[in-house]
Amino acid sequence: MPAKTAVVAIGGNSLIKNPRHQTVSDQYLAAHETTVHVVSMVAHGWNVIVSHGNGPQVGFVLRRSELAAHELHEVPLDVCGADTQGAIGYALAQNLQNEMRRRGIERPVAALVTQCEVNGEDPAFASPSKPIGSFMTEAEAKRRQAEDGWVVIEDANRGWRRVVASPRPLRIVELDSIKTLVDVGVVVVAVGGGGIPVVRNDAGDLEGVAAVIDKDLASSLLAQRLGADLFLIATAVEKVALGFGTPAQQWVDKLSLAQARRYLAEGGHFAKGSMAPKIQAVIEYLEHGGGEALITDPEHIEPALEGQTGTRFTVC
To answer: Which entry of 59, 101, 157, 190 is 20 to 30 Å from 163 by CA?
Structure first.
């Protein structure tokens, strides 16, 4: 029986446990905690493509760029995405390689810097909405808004963040390369941070643009285009909750496509800056022929795959 294929999307915030553990070494150790569970999937015969967020890491690169601007050129946002894809991809790939070696699994690993094409006329460019960078206090956020022209929002009761344009992903430029690697058994790290946003100019060439693509929507697009059997989003909670943060909060084990659509449309169930995009990503995956989706935290990936926990999404 051919191996099943899974796209596993992990968050950039999952690499940063708390404000006291943000160094490169800290993030590497956090990546190890997640990759242990991904390798368990490989051990059970899955072909795995790992995607990841990079919001906090892009913020760090931007901050370093700002601090060094008196001596060095600043780093454009699209290049910040490429930088963090490389760094996070390195950490994930090496952890995957080491963990598979320890378990006696002989599978190659590759981290691929990935571009994602968007529409240069996407209305998102007129309405920035994607949080990037580290969390700030309200006072700091308002100061940066006044002094630097940032657009800032309060993000899901976790603090304040800068927001930039978040156009819809249309095409994963390196899709054929990813398919080729997966077909020969490579464990792939790709579409980091939603992919480097690029547009096609008047000459027909691709060029980078200052934006951030939602990681979950891009990962969903990847799962759709690969015909993946499973789309798994590893996030901060073991299960999805309806009415999250309210007195009526209710954890759910399973949602059909119709139920997911209805609850998302009702509003009030899923936070806009965190869970709502994940639910939308799952919906789009299932609408385009996807098999099933799971949302859980990294440490519960194995029992979630066995149906013991997590929230499972199916067409019916």
So the answer is: 190
13 noted as active-site residue? yes
Q: Is there a single domain that holds both residue 27 and residue 143? A: no
Within 13 A of 29's CA, how many CA atoms are on the CB side?
9
Residues 236 and 250 grouped into a single domain: yes
> pLDDT, tens digit, for every residue of 87-126?
999 999 999 999 999 999 999 999 999 999 999 999 999 8
What CA–CA distance (Å, rounded) separates 78 from 90? 18
Instruction: From the candidates 81, 195, 215, 273, give the one annotated as an active-site residue.
Output: 215
Q: How many domains does the chain have?
A: 2
* Annotation marks residue 130 as catalytic: yes
Domain residue limits at 269: 5-120+170-314
pTM for the full predicted model: 0.90
Is-catalytic flag, 133? no
Given 89, 130, 192, 195, the catalytic residue: 130
Question: pLDDT, tens digit, for every residue of 24-43?
Answer: 999 999 999 999 999 999 99
How far apart are alpha carbons 8 and 231 in whole angstroms?
A: 6
Q: Which of 11, 13, 53, 133 is catalytic?
A: 13
